[in-house]
């Protein structure tokens, strides 16, 4: 998708659902880490944490007790409306969620001890600038090899780069920005969706198949996919992720 298409997609999805997939019944086998568990484990009580691309703030609010101040930034207006409602309902007083472009972070140099970013774009130089000396940046991203069988079934893979393109771009960019000890882990796990309805929810709320549902043929393709990939555990596809950790 082009940037304008992503913006329209996340505005629509953000207003409808935020970044909350808890209602979807899915089991994952082979995931090597829990990203926000990794963030929580590194937080100290007096730390300041920045979460880039925080969506509806669902994960950030779960971390509220791990640090002194947690700030989420999100560019999508739709996501921000959901985030505001989630924040108000949480009763957490040490969490802030701001509408902001990750390419122009409006914070002082060296302000945060930890910066996280899950499944969202970030700017390597801006991230380096707002991170304190001795701080750590962690990002989890979706690899191009994610949901291989779904993408092949729909035949809309012309915009996908070769697997590893994004990972290598970020690894190089972080080193050029000045980060040290840049390291990376990957996993390619199996995902089992309980029902076809769970798959429909995923495809309508994540940018996997461009314009999913735009015509009736999409649901014919999905039905064939479900029949082919149904197992005793559910409808199987894959979840391919990489996580980069970098120190300042």
Write a concise keyword list for the protein shown above.
248 residues; alpha/beta; nine-stranded mixed β-sheet; 9 helices; 37% helix; disordered N terminus
Quick gist of this model?
The chain has 248 residues and is an alpha/beta fold. The chain has helices at 3-16, 35-42, 58-62, 77-90, 124-130, 148-154, 165-177, 196-205, 217-229; strands at 26-29, 48-52, 69-74, 95-99, 112-118, 131-142, 180-193, 230-231, 234-247. The chain is built from nine helices and nine strands.
Descriptive notes:
The chain is an alpha/beta fold. The protein is 37% helix and 28% strand. It has nine helices and nine strands. Strands 1, 2, 3, 4, 5, 6, 7, 8 and 9 form a nine-stranded mixed beta sheet that branches. Strand 5, helix 5 and strand 6 form a beta-alpha-beta unit. Helix 1 packs parallel to helix 4 and helix 6 packs across helix 9. The longest helix is centred in the first third of the chain and has 14 residues. The chain is globular, with a radius of gyration of 18 Å. The two termini are 32 Å apart.
